[in-house]
Every structure is written in C-alpha cells, then in structure tokens.
Specification:
By secondary structure, the protein is mostly beta strands. It has strands at 2-3, 10-11, 34-37, 39-45, 51-57, 69-70, 85-90, 100-107, 112-118, 122-126, 134-135, 141-142, 149-153, 168-169, 175-176, 179-184. The chain has a five-stranded antiparallel sheet, with no helix packed on it.
Length: 194
C-alpha cells in the first residue's frame, strides 16, 4: 500500500481487514486454530478500546502468543471483551523498509498454514467478536469467532500519541506499507504438538 501527501502533512494508517478461517469459510469457529504472534507487547486500551499511549508486556497474560497457542485456549480469560481485539507491538528489526515475520496461523485439521510478513510496527489481532448472523458465501451464516483478522498497521490512534511511531506522511516522506501473506501446507515444527 502506498500513499503520498500532495501538499501538506497528512496522517495515513492503511490496513487489510480480511477475515480468515483456514479450516474453511463454513467450518465453524477458529478456536482450535493455532496462532503465533511475534510481538512481546501490546498497546493498552481504555474502557472505550482507545489506546492510552502506554505499552504492556504480554508475558503471563492471555495475550501471550510468542509461543504458539490455540485461539480458544485462553480467550475466556480476557477482560471486558468477547474475544481478542488488541494491537501487538511487533518485535524484530525496525524501519519502514524492513519486512519481518509478524504472525503464523495453523489449522491442523485442514493442514493449512498462513504466514504474515510486514514492515508495519503493529499487528491488530481480532476474533470477529461482533460478527453476528452475517450471511456469507453459499448462504452460510457467520457468528462471533467464526474467523480471525491479523491487520498489520501503525499503532491505532498514533496521531494522538507522540511516543508511537509517526503516521504523518509528507510530499518528501511517502507512505509504504508492505503486507505479504504466504500460504502452505508445511506445518512449522513448533506447531507439531497441537
């Protein structure tokens, strides 16, 4: 994704909001899909799900996907939500030109694997918490947790938090967001015990 400001500084934070269920669109929920997210911190939220500008470690919390976990393994331990809806601070090399592995999703039943690579600093993990009775492909009706989203992006509300990476684009500093999704049936070794 690319953007260029024509004549004045402009905030830009584009993302892909695709819903994924590697089992199949009509295979039920994604609670048994196994996820690994390469982010050791999340951006904290207020009661209205707006970032506060602070960060928190995922260690010892239901948000810890540094090692692979089933989506449903700890979802009911989450505070005040129907599921995951949080921005991860991605680890690894920093810089808008550096593309890093952000997440891996595995559906053991189908054998499908999705790897997400990006140059974005953040990754929103969302488990379709507010999808309810949405009619889709072939007339199938989707419910909460029937899919997941992994949205590489700048941190939400970055324009209001000077400690977040800037989302301001100028004519001299264009926006470039790389998102690469790689699909296979080669299950990584770390996922083999699920």
């Amino acid at each position: 994704m690319k953007a260029k400001a024509l004549n004045k500084p402009t905030p830009v934070n584009l993302l892909n909001h695709a819903y994924w269920n590697l089992g199949n669109h009509n295979s039920g929920n994604i609670l048994n899909e196994v996820v690994q997210i390469f982010g050791s911190q999340v951006t904290l939220l207020d009661d209205h799900l707006i970032p506060t500008g602070k960060f928190a470690s995922v260690k010892g919390t239901p948000y810890d996907f540094l090692e692979p976990h089933r989506v449903g393994e700890r979802i009911n331990q989450l505070p005040k939500t129907n599921g995951y809806d949080i921005n991860y601070v991605l680890d690894g090399a920093k810089g808008k030109e550096i593309i890093k592995l952000g997440a891996i999703v595995v559906d053991k039943k189908s054998g499908r694997v999705m790897k997400l690579f990006t140059n974005a600093p953040g990754l929103q993990f969302y488990t379709a918490n507010f999808v309810e009775n949405d009619k889709g492909k072939g007339g199938f009706v989707y419910q909460p947790r029937s899919a997941l989203c992994l949205e590489s992006q700048a941190f939400p509300d970055s324009v209001n938090h000077p400690n977040f990476p800037s989302t301001i684009v100028t004519p001299q500093k264009p926006y470039k967001h790389v998102l690469l999704l790689k699909f296979s049936t080669k299950i990584p070794h770390a996922f083999s015990h699920f």
